[in-house]
Design a protein that fits this description.
Layout: E1 2-3, E2 9-10, E3 13-15, E4 18-20, E5 23-26, E6 30-35, E7 38-39, E8 42-44, E9 47-49, E10 52-56, E11 60-65, E12 69-75, E13 78-80, E14 90-94, E15 99-105, E16 108-110
Parallel strand pairs: 1-6, 2-7, 3-8, 4-9, 5-10, 6-11, 7-12, 8-12, 9-13, 11-14, 12-15, 13-16
Length: 111
């Protein structure tokens, strides 16, 4: 869980990481929060397989609120059989003057 709440900064870089059989409420594999802070994770060549979220984002969930910034880059990744009631692969939410940018390049999503 990448948490950049209340002025924090969370900008991890993941390269060729496999996220397999993880479970969470928000973001079965990875959850990102930019609430009044900055959250900018990058995923390059990663694989997301059979992750489960009970609410949002089976693979990746990202939230930006309260003037926060969440900027997510997903490049050359594979999402396979991830599950969530909302957004089995990637889900993003924003509000309250938050800025949310999700860029997906050259990736494959199969469910």
């Amino acid at each position: 869980f990448n948490n950049a709440n209340e002025g924090g900064l969370a900008s991890p870089r993941f390269s060729r990481v496999w996220f397999v059989n993880n479970q969470a409420g928000l973001g079965g594999a990875v959850g990102n929060r930019g609430i009044a802070g900055r959250c900018s994770p990058h995923f390059d060549g990663c694989v997301f397989i059979q992750n489960i979220a009970t609410r949002y984002g089976g693979g990746i969930y990202t939230d930006a609120n309260a003037g926060g910034l969440a900027r997510v880059l997903v490049r050359s990744c594979v999402f396979y059989q991830n599950q969530a009631p909302s957004g089995p692969a990637i889900t993003s939410t924003g509000g309250s003057n938050g800025t949310l940018v999700v860029t997906v390049l050259g990736s494959t999503i199969v469910n």
